[in-house]
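Take a specimen:
=====
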Amino acid sequence: MPVPGPVLVVGAGPTGLVAALLLARHGVEVIVVERRDGVHPLPRAVHLDDESVRILQAAGVADGFTAVSRPAAGLRLLDARLRPFAEFRRSESGLHGWPESNLFDQPALEELLRDAVAAQPLVTLHEGVEVAGVEQRPDGLSVRLRTERGHGAVGHDGLAAPTEGRPRPETTISASAVLGCDGAHSTVRDLIGARMRDLGFTERWFVLDVASSEPLPTWGGVDQVCDPARAGTFLPLPGDRYRWEWRMHDGEDAADLAERIPELTARWTGAVDVDVLRAAEYTFAARLADRWRDGRVFLLGDAAHLTPPFIGQGLGAGLRDAHNLAWKLVDALARPASAEALLESYRLERAPHAEAVIRGAVRVGRAMTGGPGAVAALRRPLVAGALRIPGVRARASRVLTTRFPAGESVDRRRHRRDLVGAHCPQVRIGDRRLDDVLGPGWALVTDGPVPDGLRARAERVGAGTVRVGELGGWLAAGRAGAALLRPDRIVAATAPRPG
């Protein structure tokens, strides 16, 4: 018997809103609650890779995202005098069919996602509401919501509305699952007794966001200043926006550096006056939750992991969580008898990958910005030389590549080149992208005949068969004639290539 009630998403940031949209596209009713009102007005996340944009595509907002973002040319490493000594170029069409590096303002993304949620009848968003408690029962979850300002509409979702100006302080609703997308200070994480494990990196950085009436000189990508005296980052955002980040010294505070903004930015701005939008201290941390799930309660995004920003994967990791969990939750709700192993695979797949990305970001950050003067002086020529070796460049990028081990929805590899556990590339089929052709569910892709066993397996999960000649080279490289794709486009199974 399916578990009653909608899915409750706690937190209306990008991770929570994308999770809601993905679930709704599978026909699941969703309630989103957010303790604050409106979109947070200040920029926070500024980078997404091509896999993340592919997830936005699955949520129905990728084309809108391209209107509020700009592709980045890549990453340059600069010395203390702003002279480039190494460069990572990024393609405008990566494995996932989108630019490999994209810069944006988070408020613009959140506005886009909120508009999509408002247009989705299966999703209801309530502001001024926070979670006060969760009780797990055999027939579902009972969730206490605190509605301090009386937001919420009486109706199918059961949330309280103000009566003659007097809000009800608490409401209890039934839910089939709870997704904790409520950030680094997660209430949901506290409710399930999870704790953050420190992975050994904490640094204070000064983050400055500005608008400039005149364009500032930029090569179109991100600059990382590898200066042991003051490591920094410069990012040209869409429109008239720019961001700098500088590592803070012991004893400094944000007020100290705010007084020095003209001095800190002079080498980029020259005589151009800029309008400061935000000047604040941020602590870059590397942490991972010791548990990601308690029954039907899950942690996603910053509630489950925190990463330093050096490889631009903070928000992208949360979107990966949403993409991985949404389809599994849909399948589990439809087939509760076999749900446990599938839901547990969310943690088994995402936690190791998130930890690998975090540790990769820590290594990159230390290599680019850490170390005393003597070490830093040696680092520049060593890094520059190493990055000229193609194999070293490939290994530096490999941490971001998804390759899940065998598990509940990934077969064991039949040979070293087998495609299972990895993403299917998103190719163009005429004027359409592959995922738009396949739709939101399971899919069987082939460039030839399909063996009966794999075809029967595809039918059991409701996968349609799509013949895609454009994937012929990819299938041949994996010695496969057909591949069964999960809804998140990870290869679950393959069939050997005929002959």
In short: The CA atoms of residues 199 and 286 lie 5 Å apart. The first helix runs from residue 14 to 25. DSSP finds 14 helices and 26 strands in the chain.
